Predict the 3D structure of the following.
Amino acid sequence: MRLSVIIVNYNVRHFLEQALRSVRKAMLGIDGEVWVVDNNSVDDSVRMVQEIFPEVKLIANQHNPGFSIANNQAIRESTGEYVLLLNPDTLVEEDTFSKCLDFMDAHPAAGALGVKLIDGSGKFLPESKRGFPTPWVAFCKTVGLSSFFPKSKWFNQYYLGYLGENETNEIDVLVGAFMFMRRTALDKAGLLDEAFFMYGEDIDLSYRITQAGFKNYYFPETKIIHYKGESTKKGSLNYVRTFYQAMIIFARKHFEGRSAGLFVLMLQAAIWLRAGITLTKNFFEKIWLPALDAIIIYIGLFFLKDFWANYYYKDPYWFKPNVLWFNFPLYILIWLGTAWLNGAYDQRYNLRQLVRGLGFGTLILAAVYGFLDLDYRPSRALVLMGAVWAVLSTVGIRALAYFKQYRNFDIGHDKVKNLIIIGSTAESNRVMGLLNQVGVQKNLIGYIDPTMGMGQQIEEKAALQMQRPGLGGALGWLDQLDEIVRIYHIEEIIFCSRDLRSQEILSWMTRLGAGISYKIVPEESLSIIGSSSKNEPGELYTIEIQYNIAQPGQRRNKRVLDVLVCVLLLLSCPIWAVFSEKRKVLLQNWLPVLFGYRHWVAYAVHPQQTMLPRLRPGVFSMLDALDGVTPTAATVARLNYLYAKDWGVWRDLEILYKSRVHKSEKGNRPV
């Protein structure tokens, strides 16, 4: 057998499907096998592979052992003369494997090779070719010298910036997203070091291959897409810690003496430095807008206080000093707190959520106002004027921020991108159907059918516009795409992989550049996949079920509800501790819920609920609200599904209210 392709997957099912479809095409005419090792994904990846790709050899782990162990599992069972380690968030060209095989056959000293990688926007990824991370190389990378001098042989050995991206060269390190290795080299160098959970294992193995007497090559005659950010999230502390810890393992393994000690010390310092930078960056990204809102609202309240004291009370000293340090902070806390709970800071430019949150905050303030001591009730008019100012000022801040980013004031109106579809009439219709079902708004300019000649497209355009005027028409030849993009100001292109070879798609992406949003719809797939940046997660249009409980804002609201219930139980402890029949359950679970180890309400126990978004164990479930009904397993599964799909605060409150009644009080009846 010539080639064994091994893909380790963890919760990127849609990207895995696209990768496997491209691998299937690239394997045509090659005696080979494809392995998928799933590290206990909860997104139904295993079932997708079993149903759509029956030819794939599948290893389904019941836990996540890490990247190295999972790859080694398949390597040990594979039999190919060559072994390819491939990321699931990739797309290969049809001739990628055959070209790599030809190169390796022609260069018997080659132990491994990597290819040219581009991201989802068509940009070249510099990690396609890398040097060994010696202390000096790692220092230049850590302090940013490699970024300041990208073409320098002295400062940018990490990415070998002095080597041309379109030139075949010997290199030191391959990227783990695509490692094409000779079996004999792998046997001599050894498998991946399982001390590396993630990151660093590709550097370590590349180094050992050269130590075994083989050469590593960068081979840009073929290229692949690597949707960076899908398998890992780089803006997290976990990434910083895991990456640099992997570098420490590498340093301790391959360097000796003083250089090893200095290298490890530098890497440990880098962990703290990068962690600090990441924490600071994440903090300011989250806090700058609410902090600015608070400052502007406070300034406005200060001037409104002076205005109302002079205009209405005719006394500039009417308001007591406590209004500045008590009332105004309280007002701002309630206004911004309710805005936060309504998701105003999850979607920065959603004015509806902002105004609704501020409105709720004003109602809460009106209720709280009457309970305050007379010394802390300065003026109802000040609250109302402050509410108006809070709305106007926060909307104004977002309008200015929106203008700075987009150079217009169409805030609250999502910009509809000019879209063209590259595919046959049938596939273009299917893509538009998918977009309509998902509810994505696009300004479809037209389509280009790569399977037709120009005359056929003109005839098709006339016929199609009579039947489906919303689909637009044929715009021209495929080789006119760059001109069409320029004339119609195209901002998004969807490629239909059924009608275009991956090689054509990748060529057009690199040719048109990163100013356009690219997406690909795999044949027979219900998802449209793309990515606009190597540092951001990919974009996904899919008609599959969207679970309410999986939304970040709803997750936050659920956590807030848990804490509020804990506070309420604490305040009412003398009552329920005496009269409630569930006092033991409440007492046992109060601390676990408060510290986030449990929810007050979650799924009912069911052995096959792994497809649903994960929740911590719950004290109560929908079963506790059934009043004596004994449900079947199918009913439990359905109730859990509905709970995840339609979750809201009132759903949990309803379950908590009904759970106070024993199921046994009304008898058990199956459903």
